[in-house]
Specification:
The chain is mostly helical. It is built from 8 helices and no strands. It starts with a helix and ends in a 9-residue tail after the last helix. 37% of the residues are buried.
Length: 172
């Protein structure tokens, strides 16, 4: 994992790539980009937008929460820039644990959820999610194993939580 981290993290860096990956990772923090997309779709196509909000907002939030809190705090893996002296870090160093990647979980949970509503855009959605996941290693914040685990958990949690949507649609 450390060797693969160094291989990816030491790819050529320049102002454009650093800025691109930093902004990409920033707008996907906490699912912000996915919630903004829900808002844009809701303004342009109200009925579809509200279907997406009802079907995706809570599963996305819960998937993010599950990865960021109980799982990360259980494993407590140190960030690569703490354990690897040669790590190149772009931007602010995160203060939380490394395993699994919350950004990757968020990106892939959102890609999976949105692909239910936009199946013809599935390739684009997963490409964006993959770029977000890649950015976490490129920027020096995660090991590749963190990213793969986060991506996988994001999809699994999104799938499971979407199937449980009847729980939050019960009227009391």
């Amino acid at each position: 994992d450390a060797n693969l981290f160094l291989l990816i993290n030491h790819l050529p860096h320049n102002r454009f790539l650093n800025g691109f990956f930093y902004i990409l990772t920033l707008i996907f923090t906490g699912g912000t980009a996915w919630y903004a997309l829900m808002g844009v779709v809701s303004m342009r196509h109200q009925r579809l937008g509200w279907r997406i909000v009802r079907g995706a907002a809570l599963p996305l939030a819960l998937a993010i929460w599950l990865v960021e809190y109980p799982i990360k705090h259980y494993f407590r893996r140190r960030r690569p820039f703490i354990t690897i002296v040669q790590a190149i870090v772009i931007g602010k160093k995160p203060g939380s644990w490394s395993f699994p990647s919350g950004h990757s979980a968020t990106a892939f949970a959102g890609a999976w959820l949105f692909s239910r509503y936009f199946p013809r855009r599935r390739g684009l959605l997963y490409t964006v999610a993959s770029l977000v996941a890649f950015s976490r290693v490129y920027l020096g914040d995660h090991y590749p194993g963190d990213v793969v685990s986060g991506s996988t958990l994001g999809v699994i949690f999104a799938m499971l939580l979407r199937r449980l949507r009847w729980l939050w649609s019960i009227k009391f």
